[in-house]
Amino acid sequence: MKFLSIDTSTKYSVLAIFDEERLGFGERRLFEKGRVDGLDILIREGLKKTRARIERIGCFGAGVGPGSFTGLRVGLSSVKGLGYGLAVPVAGFSSLDAIAYNFLEDEAVVDLCVMVDARRANVYCRFYKRRKDGFVHISADELVPAKGLFSRCKPSTVFCGDAVGLYRHEIEKEFGIRAISPEAAWFPTPESIRRLSLEAFASGRTKSCYDLSARYLYEQDCQVKKAC
Asked: What CATH homologous superfamily does 2-94+188-222 map to?
């Protein structure tokens, strides 16, 4: 069975088309304008290169955030529309996990903090600890003031996510340059969303397209306001 998963929680649109054995197509692309059309083009390109037909996709996956409000709407709308149109299940996964999974093979990283810019001097964050079979969550997805984040971190913590670029000086001053991960690992990758999607599919964490929703932590910004 073939799978198609996307993540649009950051400035990049990430696409993976794969089966249980391998990644058939993976791309991380920046669309500064026209993100809806850009994602559609990317999906069509991936299907063409893998010679896959959209009606043969057995499951769809999507990063549900937290992250960019607009980006998440684009990605989830696409996956929900495909799931509805083809009557196949969908699965959601944490977009912060999709960043953390870039470090699964790097055993030197034991304590990990994913931090993504949430604006207003806040960050979306999650803490991870390496165990024998990979990372475990030390916290839930959180929205916190950036200035209060570092007091919760261990000296051995490695930081990743696009907010690292914003707070690089503070991180280096407190934890040293070794705590700064490579910029290429600050965003979800096709391989990381492939792994998360397969885990969700294998464990039965799929759902109807009607039940797939974004993880918005700025709840007050995501309410429909009635006119007085």
From this structure: ATPase, nucleotide binding domain (3.30.420.40)
